[in-house]
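fyi for ur records
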Amino acid sequence: MRITVTVNGEQHTRDVEPRLLLVHFLRDELGLTGTHWGCDTSNCGVCTVWLDATPVKSCTVLAVMADGHEVRTVEGLAHGAELDPVQQGFIACHGLQCGFCTPGMMLTARWLLDHDADPSEEDIREAISGQMCRCTGYENIVRSIRWAAEHGGGAQTADAAADTEPAPGREEVRA
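which gave:
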């Protein structure tokens, strides 16, 4: 099947097998290896990307389902040479650790901050509850997201600024 997907603002057209998962499309077809492939059962969350501004686990989305839609990966988080405050927070507070869960955590954090510029520690823990850190270093990750919130990291996207819906519940964030 021929699909066209806009990834990090750039349109890509490819012929793909109908059963190809979005995570494999991003990694193998587009070379965007920042999206990690973990459990393949949607439990670990390391493959989290945005599909039309909503975090999803790309191991549960077929590439053909993304046809005509926008995808944002960790490679699209920075603004040119300037790191997103979430990325800066992960550096400042040692939230990177082994780095396996980092891309999914960062995209979930960006989404949270776009919808709640000043989340509590409890809100942050709820938002990242669908993702596993194999280092079990959640404390540093939570601190990193709080750092981003305290350093102007909230409401980065125009879509989010226009979004008047309240912060999502666990089911929406778990993607």
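The longest strand covers residues 2-7. thats all i got for now
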